[in-house]
Amino acid sequence: MSKKVRIQQIENIIKTEKPVGRIDIPWKDKLEPMDVYQIPLDYLVYNKYNGRILSRTKSYENQNLKIDVESDVGKKLIEDLLWNSKAQKNKETLASLNKIGQEKVGIITQDGIIIDGNRRAMLLNKIDHIDYFKAVILPVEYEGNPLEIEKFETKYQLGEERKLDYNPIEIYLKVQSLYMQLSGKSFYSPETVDKKAIKRIYEWIGNYKNIKSSNDIEYTLAVMNSMDEYLDWFEYNGIYTTLDEREEQFRGLTTWLINLYGENSRKAFDYYKDDDVDDLKTLCYDLIRIKYKNEKFRYVAQGQKQNHFFGNKEIWDSFHNEHRSITNAFIEPKIDVNVKNLEAHLNSIDSKFKDEIGEKLDENVDNHYTKLRNKQSQDQPEKLINKALDSFNSINKNNKNFNSKSVQKLVEELGNKVFDSLQKKSPSRVLSHIINLLESIDIKQIPDNEIKDVQDKTKRIQQIGYQINKNL
Fold this sequence. Notes:
The protein is an alpha+beta fold. It is 57% helix and 6% strand. The chain is built from 18 helices and 5 strands.
């Protein structure tokens, strides 16, 4: 059905049909009482840019694919996206609609575009005995006043009514879209921010989840910038579905970048540079890519300098170098932009990245968090020595790996450090320890091939002991 025919049919309903109700609608900054009509579902068209699936439709169109919502193919695509956005909730709502019918009234334009109620309309289309949609008809065509419709949709769904619970990424796209429309700018920059546009967006949205003030609108835009830079880094430009389940990490990273850029933060190691912050950012991209747990992601740069890796240059350099060594070993698959399902293709690449090196990246974080905690306890030697003893005692010394050259070299290095410390603090303790070691040797257990070597070493011990005693 063409747009012209839809307009005529809907206009005819208004003229000839009796309203089935009346509700107040916030239209053009005031409540307007509007009639509710039963509109045949065949007269309606889904809004492909509705907030519930905005990231999906934008991702689809950014692949140079067109969504013609008036075609059967386009309609089916939108219905699948709407269903998959909240599959379990949709099943519950479908059962309710099938049993008692449509309770909540939808909102459409004069040309049949659904502004509020896309999900309900999709579910009603699955029910054979219901062929109409109860809705208020706004006195405007969808393309007749797009900003007014955007304002209405935002205030109605995110403002005081807060009827629509957006998926996490959708709210960032929504705010970004509003800012671009209201400011006339192609992107958000804190240096050239349009404060009037920010204020209007907050007036429309009001308090919603993390948004409690106009400053939070700017922060939301900054987070969206971080997301766009992440997509650009991996050449995932515009494929917003690859941001799923990563919101908290992006918020954390954005806060760190805001605080650290400029080379004057007291939360970073001394004399750090913006180049170091660039390294921090791209390193975090790798952790975000594997959907790293937020409680461990914070170890990288969250809080005061003594509490994270970026606050200590020695730990940061070690952590960063090991991280790069791990990621450099990963061979990045080439992106096939012509693949039929780009979203699935990119997700498979991210999964490969996680499967091959995710555990190593996690182990690197754990190892350096242990080093950080040890740094924090450097003035508590007893605590650290007990921890070292517990670790050494936990080793299965009968395991063949314990006797490997690399492990034994580490054991020797550990012993040398202990002896060096004892010698500096108390030579007498070193001698006592040597005596205990010598007395513990079971001569019968000395292998034949080592007897000559042991004889030579014991003679050398006698010589050293004689010289020490003579010089005292």
